[in-house]
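Sequence in, structure out. Go.
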Amino acid sequence: MKPGIFYGTSTGTTEKVAKLIAQAVGVADTDVYDVAKTSPSTVGDYDLIILGAPTYGSGDVQDDMADFLDGVRVLDLKGKKAAVFGCGDESMSSTFCSGVEEIYKALKDTGATMVGEYNTFPYRFESSAAVPVQGGEAVGLLVDDVNEPDKTETRVKDWVKTLI
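Output:
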């Protein structure tokens, strides 16, 4: 299985997490892409597609990723696996990592098989669009590297085990 990682970032945090995921999966730097500099069709070159971005404003996905998803939505990714991750701040309690849901929906609509649900216990947020059932699993990895940077590496390593 050939994995590719695609991230949108504004402050560098999501890039950092993408690189941690790459290390945990054993992905070469050449298979890790900043979506601001990448054609959406590149995701078709991979068997496991991992997309991630931060959440901003009232639960919106980062701008570069939003633009990238416009191109991804029209692809046929049947037979491929896809996983999502996102960065946020749990103090934004009612929209924590909600942008992850937008990435998830775009990939799911392509026919890709979605993998990588993640337990949200013991996170401390009120609600998130990335968690379909309150208190349940998120559709992907949620990272709060602002308030809990000491947990990021462990969360990444635990999540990656669910992907392969």
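Check: Strands lie at 3-7, 32-34, 48-56, 60-61, 81-87, 113-114, 118-119, 137-138, 141-143. Helices lie at 13-25, 63-72, 99-108, 149-160.
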